[in-house]
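Protein: DUF4397 domain-containing protein
Species: Heliobacterium mobile
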Amino acid sequence: MHDDFFYPLDSDYHASVDGQSFVRILHAAPGAPAVDVYANNVLIVRNLTYRQFTQYLPLFPGRYRIVVFPAGSRTSPVIDATLSIPAGTIYTAAAIGTLPNLRLLPIADPCIARGFGQSYVRFVHLSPNTPAVDIATSTGVQLFRNVSYTQVTDYIPVQPGLYTLEARPAGTNQVVLTVPNVRIAANRILSVYAIGLSGGQPSLQVLIPLDGNAYLPVCRFTR
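Structure follows.
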């Protein structure tokens, strides 16, 4: 293993080698400062702020020591973890928790077979003080049930369209968060990340990025 295992994405990144993997990093730790991320002592991400995702970074499979510092510093790391990446995989590595108890949660973005025009959605619970929740549409269709902190659901198929999503304490009809105007286009694979704090600042909210398994070459054989 060598220190220059990460390299920038460019216009030719789709010409990936067999077995290559991809990782993006999410800052989902409410109240934590912007951070710099080092992998095997190499700076790979600079000044990542709360709510931000990096782009997917191509890398070779292996074990990596991931150390996260407050931006501009090389002392007092807020995370020091080992990340194991198998060949031919896609991951989102989320910095979660609240200071001083932060950790790195690896979340696989698995390749899934899908039909033309079909879209998929899953839910990822990363709000540290929010109890288990159900996720439903405003029309009463329950999508995910009893999802606890750090849990990641399976993807479910959804019809393209415009949705209003609601988060409710598990088993209740009380709505603690409403997310209007969620537009799901055809041929998308999305994750709904719940981040922030219930009753605190930064407040509870969601991020809905396009996942790499929708377009990265790792999954080219499942389309």
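Remarks: Confidence is low (pLDDT under 50) at residues 1-16.
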